[in-house]
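PT: before anyone asks, these are the final sequences, not the draft ones from last week. 513 residues across everything. Please model them as a single complex and drop the result in this thread when it's through.
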Amino acid sequence: MLDDFMVRAALAGIGVAIAAAPLGCFVVWRRMAYLGEATAHASVLGVALALAFSLPLLPAIIASALAMGVAVTLLRGNGFAMDTLLGVIAHTALAAGLVTVALLGDVRLDLNAFLFGDILAVTKSDLATIWVGGAFILAVMIWRWSALLVATLNPDLAYASGIDPKREEMWLTLAMALAVAVAIKVVGVLLIAALLVIPAAGARSLVKTPESMAFFAAAIGSLAALGGLGGAYLADTPAGPSIVCAAALIFVVTALLAPLVRRD
Amino acid sequence: MNSPLISLDNISIRVDGRTILKNVNASVSENEIVTIVGPNGSGKSTLLRAMIGAVSPAEGTVHRAPGLRIGYVPQKLALDAALPLTVQRFLGLPKRIPARDAINALDLAGVPDLRNRQMTKLSGGQFQRVLLARALLEKPQILLLDEATQGLDQPGAAAFYQRIEQVRHDMGCAVVMVSHDLHVVMAASDRVLCLNGHICCEGSPRTVADAPEYRALFGSGTKGTMALYQHQHSHSHDHDHHHAQDKTH
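LR: through. Structure below.
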């Protein structure tokens, strides 16, 4: 079954959608959509450096994404608004990465696949990376779920309950770095933030509790992965962007349905 | 008296190089109501946050009784509308609780029927009481309230403080309140700390209201504050210009 590239692509898409769902909820609740983008962009620089020094790609991606996440967390509250700060370092990381790749000359990197994903070329070992990484992300999110929720509501409320909100934030940063690493193959660096935010935003209209929002985000993400793949197959469009378009379509539908579904 | 639940031992707190609190000594013992008053920017909230461990002092130490159960009601809680949260789920953070416990806590806070409502759809007064309910869930030994009646009208605030006194009576917990609703709060207090970057004066509400340091900060006739104290006109601007102390609460 795994020998069919469409099956592998579908499994990859669903794996990423499920892993991204709880993380995406926190991205929406904490208003840090841009952090997803920043960590993703940082991975371009990570890959460029890995190529320059002949290092393995996956650890380089995780390390660079993690470094970006930590840098952003530490730099916060130093006089610049978060969006300004991320606007500076996220795009700098992307630009510096692209420049470094060009400087390397002998490029062994399919930049296009890297920026926009190449889900149809997912190999069995890619699939293993995605599902193992995804399982790890899911485990971290389930483990830290309640503490992260309290820290998201209010840091002081967390302290009063004996929870260190900074430590919880670091878990989130780590999960984000891993998500970037596993999602690159599916939607590429430029669209990872969309895969985090759109399913979660689509789920918001339908639910009353944080847990059900994460659950519906996973369902919407999976549906978008399958729909986008199908659409890409039929219309011969690039798969990654098609998945994001499918997610956006579902978002619009749920937003329109919201008044019928939700009564608080 | 038993050893204090929380004591601040000569702490100084700096934020971004600015000294917010300097050489503050304070402690809270079982079952007493302590009110912290002071002008804006005097470090009231910071003092409370030091008590719960949200800020670490640059100097001095904060002692909390081992295993101390803290109930904290923040000044305001900006809930993002993107976060769906029923009252029941909010009360069950970080530890899920059975519906029965939620109902009891909401009862205690005076808002029995809100369990299935969305947090973002509550009125200001309901929201504060749900925060109070959550703070009460763990049967706190000490309840800390940071201007918990901000945004409530006068009757709402008065009703809220009445509820607090009732809770203190029922649960036997200590209460620390930060407020500038002086006239409402001070009357209910066992002890008042008047803060302005340092502790200007402290003692029973009467003592503090009569202290020259307090009067320098709040004036002597502010909005009927003094009307609560029977001897308001009997103060005699006496020679007492060192920091007033009254440990006989």
